[in-house]
Amino acid sequence: MTGKNASEIWDLVEAKREVFFALSDRIWEMPELNFEESHSCAEHLDVLEQQGFRITRNVAGIPTAVMGEAGEDGPVIAILGEYDALPGLSQVAGLAEQKPVVDGGNGHGCGHNLLGSGSLMAATAVKDYLEAHGLKGRVRYYGCPAEEGGSAKGFMVRAGVFDDVDIAISWHPAPFAGVNNPISLACNEINFHFSGRASHAAASPHLGRSALDAVELMNVGVNYMREHMPSTARIHYAITDTGGSAPNVVQANATVRYLIRARDLPEMQGLLRRVKKIAEGAALMTETTVRSEIVSGDANLVGNTPLEQLMHQNLERLGPPVFDEQDRAFAAEIQKTLTNEDIKSSFVRFGLKPRMGVPLCDTIFPPESGDGTLVGSTDVGTVSWVVPTVQMRGATYAVGTPGHSWQLVAQGKAPAAHKGMEHAAKVMASTAIDLFRNPALIEEAKADFRERLAGTPFVNPIPDDVDPPVTVKDNQVLA
Ligand SMILES: [Zn+2]
What we know:
39% of the residues lie in helices and 17% in strands. By secondary structure, it is of the alpha/beta class. Strand 3, helix 4 and strand 4 form a beta-alpha-beta unit.
């Protein structure tokens, strides 16, 4: 984007500073988990209404999902936000020592208070720009719940809510600013319920068939399989029902939950088939039965070179976020609670040379940086299989801060977090305006998208018969 247009859209972002810093802080103060985000969703709904968006509630049948649209005709650009928190991470804001607000309470340990507010900030500035210039085009803000293990965007994709979207843009809080190396793992979370027969473990052991034995044998089988799978794949498990606490009863029921991750959807689906065979083998060995049930799933992120280049150009033009001495002083206090290894690996992850004494981001990391071997999963991945998608990292916390940590929660309302959020909103907004002003860029992005996915049919990792585990009723989301 050229100078005048860029500074105009950035001014429009700045003009809404107070509204969105306050929104982010309110969301931080009401941390809500997966599919329970009734208050957080209502806050987003409220701001969407105030800012003049047309609103769709209960998106994809999920009461805590909301969509706001503005503008007329033209291409549709979606900006994706999130607002769910994590359990057990309650922490006092602005404090460099661990101290919960509520013992065992929730906390915004992934910065989703900033993620949702920053995306809505960008969407609002884009809306104001389209209005001021009479430009054709529609901007949408998707308030997406349940990213943390809930895969809400997968359910939203399945419901077709992105079908008429041309481009999707998102971001995530991070220690550094830059365009994501688009690597994340496809995953499925799946329960294996084993059923056997209870009996007295001493008086009639021969009559019992242990479901817990089946779980243990399944785990052994998967342990052997690990040697024979791609080195980038990951398989984790948790025994969620051991069948009871009495050793003198043969356990009739037991459940193990597996999380299977791989580089892409087809590879992950191949591993899933193998794990299911091992479960059947364990059932056969123990004369029990097994039933499996997918809980959630994300596709891997599909990159998009034209969009990544465009977003990177906008980042370069804006420069890294500007922090002050006070911001750096607090970040340095946080760094004292971290290990040198935390700090070093934070640089390495983003392809940067480790430097000590750098509390906050002072640079933009280069595109496709980092080796991408230590990555997790995100439900933005599923969106990227149906819409050309681009994502950036915004620098909102001290270099070295681990994800999902009390240190991250402690920084969620700091001035540096607000500055990093505004910075990301500016980059997302100016990228969107470039696309509206130059539809040929949208066509380039679509061509890249088609080329990457040619010959690989999309199979949503969430099967048709799985419903989102919704706990909130639509009328509980007020605004
Ligand atoms: Zn996150």
